[in-house]
Design goal:
By secondary structure, this protein is an alpha+beta fold. 53% of the residues lie in helices and 16% in strands. The chain is built from 13 helices and seven strands. A seven-stranded mixed β-sheet has the order 1-4-5-6-7-2-3. A hairpin with a 2-residue loop joins strand 6 (264-273) and strand 7.
């Protein structure tokens, strides 16, 4: 049996992976950290001397923890989120083209999941989300997922399939070229700043969806569909004295906006397809924004 020091060292080796699983399951950085901590507590209390694949064991444990957290979260809501409700998950923010990324950041962004996909995952049933994330994102066999969700292998495949259909129908995929993304976002920001809404409409998809989550600031939360409606929102916000910093948000080009006193006002994730903005996911909840780690971009801001 490994010593406590050896066990801690082995856990730290797998921590980035465990944290990445938890974040994709929960869409919350703080809750993901709680799930990772619970996984460590369970590991420290278990004799794993007979475990050949500690990474797989930890994946199963943190998946069970996350499933319980998702079920608790769902029980607090009177009904599941529908397509017109707004819940923007916590974004992962980093500077653009940073070199020498640490293992935590690299693992969190490996097989990166954009905000647009995480928004759709929020609407899935907990067992659907678990089956989809573990199989489609992390490649876990259905035979290993089935015991976690207490279903047969066939039923577990059906859970993932149902989740996949919703994801494919509702979560747009962003263009992979970050430089092309940057050009579109720069054109968007310039058009808003100049009040040039003829230029703005050229970078917006006609069916664009804007989703803003203001948390307790109910007046900030909104779901806006269509280029004309989004332009109206942009016109309103152009009158607020905000500074913009272009960053990476979940490994796609995004923007952090700040008030004149330097406080973060919002984080905007862009989904860009075919050279047009097809989705904007905006976190404007002051409480959650205050807990985000923006130290990496503040050093460059």
């Amino acid at each position: 049996m490994p010593t406590p020091e050896q066990l801690a060292e082995q856990f730290e080796e797998h921590r980035p992976h465990v944290r990445a699983v938890a974040y994709r399951m929960l869409g919350s950085i703080n809750e993901a950290e709680d799930a990772v901590q619970e996984a460590w507590i369970r590991l420290s209390r278990t004799d794993v001397s007979g475990v050949d694949n500690l990474r797989g064991w930890l994946t199963t444990v943190v998946a069970r923890v996350c499933l319980d957290m998702l079920r608790t979260r769902a029980s607090r809501r009177e009904a599941p989120l529908d397509d017109d409700e707004v819940r923007v998950p916590d974004p992962i923010i980093r500077a653009i083209w940073r070199e020498n990324e640490g293992p935590e950041s690299s693992a969190m962004l490996a097989d990166s999941v954009g905000l647009a996909l995480l928004v759709v995952l929020e609407k899935l049933e907990p067992v659907e989300r678990l089956a989809f994330v573990l199989h489609d994102v992390f490649g876990m066999p259905f035979e290993e997922i089935a015991p976690i969700v207490d279903r047969s292998v066939v039923a577990t495949r059906q859970l993932a399939s149902r989740a996949r259909r919703r994801v494919q129908g509702q979560a747009p995929t962003s263009d992979a070229d970050l430089r092309k993304q940057r050009r579109v976002v720069d054109a968007f920001l310039a058009a808003v700043q100049d009040g040039d809404f003829e230029a703005l409409v050229t970078v917006l998809d006609p069916d664009i969806v804007l989703r803003a989550d203001g948390g307790a600031l109910k007046g900030m939360s909104r779901l806006v569909r269509g280029a004309q409606a989004v332009m109206s929102q942009a016109a309103a916000f152009s009158r607020i004295a905000l500074s913009n910093q272009v960053v990476l948000v979940n490994d796609n080009i995004g923007v952090v906006t700040r008030l004149p006193d330097g406080r973060v006002f919002s984080v905007i994730g862009f989904t860009i397809a075919g050279g047009k903005v097809v989705e904007m996911d905006i976190l404007a909840d002051p409480d959650r924004l205050s807990r985000l780690d923006v130290s990496a971009i503040e050093r460059l801001g």
